[in-house]
Design brief:
Layout: H1 2-5, H2 22-30, E1 34-38, H3 42-54, E2 59-62, H4 68-79, E3 85-88, H5 96-102, E4 107-109
Amino acid sequence: MEKILNHEDVLLILPTGGGKSLCYQLPALLVEGVVVVVSPLLALMQDQVHGLAAKGIRAVMMSSMQDMEQIIQAQNDLQNGALKLVFVAPERLQNNQFLHFLTTLNIAFLPLMRHIA
């Protein structure tokens, strides 16, 4: 976490339940701006958002599971600083509109999650 807070690149290889999520969730609360988490697993992103909400931490998932109204609300909340974390699938980074939207945010850091079965 210290390296993340110092804006250094980090590679973590830990087993399931090893605390990988905490390594970006806690720093997200300590820095100004939003953390954009890129993860290929929709179910995991959804679980993360629900788990964070249970702890009173506002996060959102932007994926094909949301309708346009939910996406617009998420974008507004992100721009207004109401959210600390946004979870997106890798393919969303191929969307030019989304990439342009990211330029409007104060991004603290961008962890890329890779899950190996």
